[in-house]
Design goal:
Blueprint (H helix, E strand, L loop, with lengths): L5 H4 L5 H14 L5 E2 L11 H12 L12 H15 L8 E4 L1 H13 L5 E6 L4 H8 L3 E6 L10 H7 L4 E7 L11 H12 L5 E5 L15 H4 L7 E6 L12 E4 L2 H12 L7 H12 L3 H22 L14 E2 L20 H10 L3 E2 L1 E2 L9 E4 L4 H16 L3
Parallel strand pairs: 1-10, 3-4, 3-5, 5-6, 6-7
Antiparallel strand pairs: 2-8, 7-8, 9-12, 11-12
Bound molecules: pyridoxal-5'-phosphate.
Length: about 400
């Protein structure tokens, strides 16, 4: 019996989740696996946020809310954009959902006609292309490897646009490669888009607060204010406040688009958890020292991981500018053999070998649309990272 619709058959389950599940299975069997595959902060949620969730329940906020969430949450989001980004959004230009992930899905569900194209520079976050496919769209992947600084430029954007283009997907700081677009780079893309009024822009800015070097984060709308009426800024509390399990994301955009997204949400999940909404209010309105302390720790870990990987002959990488991943190119290892005689024909083979023999879980670049690379998350303790680097050094060294 075939249960899957033709649409579902076009997509795969999240590959980073799959690696992580395998790593957890190996751990359960007593294998000492270090899991560097998931993009999830290892810190606990700030205490005042947990307290706010507790209070929310005690005070009776245990029921459905409107699809666009509590007014207090939308107010906190409006204030966040004003305070941190100098951007002015109205209360009806904000929506919320069960994570940034659901916002992306809502946006595609609300807007894509069959065959609409979504320009997706690679490397991209694993879910973008599959979400487009699930909603009847066509991902148009533009490889932007290290030779392009991992970024899309005006010329290649212009060449990718067709009469069917509906969205341009941008993600800065980027998962998996850490690239941050400068104001000038965004502005150059904006100039191209001005000539193509049907194209909408998603700017996924969920890693806004994880900045590792001197390159500052710039919201797309700051660089391209003339495109404000066709840009959806996506953000959330998962990465900044380690609140991944609360499932709370938010977006800002033109009212018509926000209304359409709220409509799809009203017929799917109704609203994000009332408790998580009030916890997010506390996170956004409360003290921000957690965010600064976490960022300092990510900077120290990033430097440590990059130094450790640079010492492995054959890996090519730079210090990522933001987010918490290292994304080395590993072409030198493709075509080599493992000590038990297996050929490493792809980055997926390499990632598999590193898990099997090195006992370190990574995600191959192919999951992010760009080969041959591997992604290592440094959202884990320095001790674990040090140990992982030693195991990786040994495993890479054993390839012939
Ligand atoms: C680039 C990017 N966007 C969105 C998300 C999803 O975030 P959320 O937990 O808010 O759904 C992730 C999570 O890994 C991500 O890396």
């Amino acid at each position: 019996m075939e249960f899957q619709s033709s649409r579902v058959r076009t997509v795969k389950s999240s590959p980073s989740m799959a690696v992580s599940v395998l790593a957890k299975k190996m751990l359960a069997l007593g294998e000492p696996v270090i899991n560097l595959s998931l993009g999830e902060p290892d810190f606990n949620v700030p205490a005042h946020v947990i307290e706010a969730a507790h209070q929310a329940m005690l005070e009776g906020n245990n029921h459905y809310t409107a699809p666009n969430g509590y007014e207090a949450l939308r107010r906190a989001i409006v204030d966040k954009f004003q305070r941190e980004n100098g951007l002015h959004y109205g209360m009806d230009e904000i929506c919320v959902a069960n994570g940034a992930k659901q916002l992306l899905f809502n946006a595609f569900l609300a807007t894509l006609e069959p065959g609409d194209e979504v320009i997706t520079p690679a490397p991209y976050w694993v879910s973008y292309t599959d979400m487009v496919l699930l909603n009847g769209g066509v991902p148009k992947v533009i490889p932007c490897g290290a030779e392009y600084g991992f970024k899309l430029d005006a010329e290649r954007l212009e060449a990718a646009i067709t009469p069917h283009t509906r969205w341009l997907m941008l993600n800065s700081p980027n998962n998996p490669c850490g690239a941050i677009y400068t104001q000038a780079e965004f502005a150059a893309l904006g100039e191209v888009l001005e000539r193509h009024p049907r194209v909408l822009v998603i700017s996924d800015e969920i890693y806004e607060h994880i900045i590792l070097g001197n390159q500052a984060f710039v919201p797309f709308v700051t660089a391209c204010p003339q495109l404000r009426e066709r840009t959806l800024l996506i953000n959330g509390v998962s990465k900044a406040y380690a609140m991944t399990g609360y499932r709370l994301g938010y977006a800002a955009g033109p009212k018509g688009l926000i209304d359409a997204m709220n409509k799809t949400q009203s017929q799917t999940t109704t609203c994000p958890s009332a408790i998580s909404q009030l916890a997010a209010v506390a996170a956004l309105n409360g003290p921000q020292d957690f965010v600064r302390a976490a960022n300092l720790e990510y900077q120290a870990r990033g430097a440590m991981v990059v130094e450790g990987l640079a010492a492995i002959d054959g890996l090519e990488l730079q210090m990522p500018e933001g987010a918490f991943y290292a994304f080395p190119r590993c072409a030198a290892f493709i075509g080599k053999s493992t000590p038990d005689g297996q050929l490493i024909a792809s980055d997926a083979d390499l990632s598999n070998y590193l898990l099997r023999v090195g006992k370190v879980a990574t995600v191959p670049g192919s999951a992010f649309g760009l080969e041959p690379y591997i992604r290592l998350s440094f959202a884990t303790s320095r001790e674990q990272l040090q140990q992982a680097l030693e195991q990786l050094r040994e495993a890479f060294g054993a390839l012939r």
